[in-house]
């Protein structure tokens, strides 16, 4: 009897072992961004973009090191908060993710990047545009989009050369993203011989901007630039109108969203402009197809940077294919050799981890939507 029990036990071990050998190798990819709070729509947008890339890779049936791979996305909510971002980054590292798409905002991406560097895990941001992120010279930090220096220069040139604005005021929300972008605009304006007539600060939690706008009204600006996200950018615009400030409204990519139009409502007009790192979806090589598939898969339209999130996830997978391994230590060096045609254009990185081809597009609000200017 003992003999037959042992035989059955051994048979069970053999069967389990053979099933394990046939099972897909699970490769976890992390995603980090604000999934709750006022800019959750931006975070979910990028989460969905990364998920679609993994879905596509799984549908193709990729094998690494002779074993079939199944990619799984582990999404974490950093609330666009620097402290929460480091906790989230550590959680992803401890969970054994092989790469990270994120973080969404610069304020979260910069502190989190140190955790990924220590863990040796590559992290590619779709939308963190602060130059400081890649200036840290971390080997694991990459981005697939233009940075704020390029965006600030584009807005400063447009404001002075096209809009002929001479009295420009600047407000920012004191986040790494908002202040970094505003600083880039101010520096570019000064290089063009224009000194801002006012520089004011708020926070990314504020709702009342009457005091700083009243102060700026006295400076009689013909344009006001706001550095921050749509959750504050839209109320700033509404309160400008309420105070009778006729200045043109200028924003960065954080204001270049469908949500900005929704929140600002009747305050939106053709005097509202924004810059966005990258190119319009209808000009992206794979934009039209991506937009249709995205809507079909998730039931919502693209908000902002989902195509860049798709390309960030795809870049991680391309590097794994080059290394024939999902192990970060093996595929990290291959990120420098990645070169492929993504949804947003040609994806390749310079030695600092920045995108080799980062364009900037200027938009104007017109007929209920954002329209790219030529």
Automatic annotation (TrEMBL):
<dbReference type="InterPro" id="IPR028082">
    <property type="entry name" value="Peripla_BP_I"/>
</dbReference>
<keyword id="KW-0813">Transport</keyword>
<dbReference type="InterPro" id="IPR000709">
    <property type="entry name" value="Leu_Ile_Val-bd"/>
</dbReference>
<dbReference type="Pfam" id="PF13458">
    <property type="entry name" value="Peripla_BP_6"/>
</dbReference>
<feature type="signal peptide">
    <location>
        <begin position="1"/>
        <end position="23"/>
    </location>
</feature>
<comment type="similarity">
    <text>Belongs to the leucine-binding protein family.</text>
</comment>
<dbReference type="InterPro" id="IPR028081">
    <property type="entry name" value="Leu-bd"/>
</dbReference>
<feature type="domain" description="Leucine-binding protein">
    <location>
        <begin position="27"/>
        <end position="367"/>
    </location>
</feature>
<keyword id="KW-0732">Signal</keyword>
<keyword id="KW-0029">Amino-acid transport</keyword>
<dbReference type="GO" id="GO:0006865">
    <property type="term" value="P:amino acid transport"/>
</dbReference>
<protein>
    <submittedName>
        <fullName>Branched-chain amino acid ABC transporter substrate-binding protein</fullName>
    </submittedName>
</protein>
